[in-house]
Design goal:
The protein contains 10 helices and 16 strands. The chain is an alpha/beta fold. Bound molecules: iron/sulfur cluster (SF4).
Length: 330
């Protein structure tokens, strides 16, 4: 389905429904905004269902195979692929489809798949197994039963991860960053990324707390190195956004700017998705500010101007960075 999400071209929902895991889920867009509308419609997979009723939709698996133009595809905007109610066998099918889309027409690169989870423990555990045979079978079967591109052998012979699956974790605060990013970095992926949305407090990606000592997730090394060191996996992309919706919590401008500056210093691509409901008061003249709900968050002020007016400029600039080794799909 085409989408307004800034960092993707399409959403693909082979799984729908989810349950909350942390404070970032509090005003989950899928549950509180999309689901009420979808579940009240007739004859859809959502009709009269509770959001917490997690279901896998085998009939949707083939959708990306049918999309001919290469695109970035957000996997499960209405769920979490690694939810505990999704069987391993269904995750195999999803990975199989992603392998089936390895190549597009005329041997051009195929789709990019953007997987985002708040359950990286299961992702890491799942990907630490050798599932290639399952993926290869699923790739052929969901690719139409034929295998003109030799995908079966390409999966079986693959020594590394699929080159166009980007694995990401959502991070709303430092606790989530400390818990989820190490698990992400232990998961094999061509691109590893963080979606800091809704960003609910200051987060330092250069100092992830680990039992064995703090870790710089942007440079892949111990804290304090000034250059990027490739001796351990590190983050390839960071997306930041504020919260939307009627009960949206403000994002302090300095939290977003802090992540922008950390990424710039480490040479990691940064995308500023949106402010959400609340914006940086400094971007609005004082006479305008008086018309809106304002909230001081320690150092400076946020004002509630609504998502549209808040926009997606940070200090007057649009930030649309993408991972260096994948670039644009166009
Ligand atoms: S994990 Fe994602 S989809 Fe699931 S409840 Fe939380 S925010 Fe919503």
């Amino acid at each position: 389905m085409p989408t307004g999400i800034e960092w993707t071209d399409e959403t693909w929902n082979p799984v729908t429904g989810c349950t909350k895991v942390s404070s970032g889920c509090k005003h989950c867009y899928a549950k509180h905004q999309a689901w009420p509308r979808l579940s009240s419609m007739q004859n859809t997979v959502y009709t009269s269902r509770e959001f917490e009723d997690v279901r896998c939709h085998a009939e949707r698996l083939v959708q990306p195979v049918r999309w001919t133009r290469q695109r970035r595809i957000f996997v499960n905007s209405m769920s979490d692929l690694f939810h505990e109610d999704v069987p391993d066998e269904f995750i195999d099918s999803v990975f199989g489809v992603m392998w089936a889309c390895l190549w597009g027409r005329d041997e051009q690169p195929g789709h990019i798949f953007q997987v985002l989870t708040k359950r990286p423990q299961r992702m890491r555990d799942y990907l630490s197994q050798d599932r290639r045979e399952h993926w290869a079978h699923a790739a052929v079967s969901h690719g139409g039963g034929m295998d003109p591109d030799g995908i079966y052998d390409q999966v079986m012979d693959a020594e590394g991860p699929h080159p166009r699956i980007w694995l990401g974790v959502s991070v709303e605060d430092q606790v989530a960053a400390d818990e989820r990013i190490p698990l992400l970095l232990q998961s094999p992926a061509a691109v590893r990324w963080v979606s800091a949305e809704p960003l609910l407090e200051r987060v330092d990606l250069t100092s992830i707390r680990l039992a064995g000592g703090d870790f710089d997730a942007l440079r892949g090394g111990d804290v304090g190195h000034s250059v990027r060191i490739e001796r351990r996996p590190s983050l390839d992309w960071v997306v930041v956004g504020g919260e939307s919706g009627p009960n949206a919590r403000p994002m302090h401008p300095d939290w977003a700017k802090g992540l922008r500056d950390q990424c710039a210093a480490a040479g990691v691509p940064f995308l500023f998705k949106q402010w959400g409901e609340w914006a940086d008061a400094e971007d609005f003249p004082s006479e305008v500010q008086e018309d809106y709900d304002a909230r001081g968050l320690t150092e400076s002020m946020c004002i509630r101007v609504g998502k549209r007016a808040a926009g997606r400029l940070l200090d007057g600039m649009q930030h649309d960075g993408y991972p260096a080794n994948q670039g644009s799909t166009s």
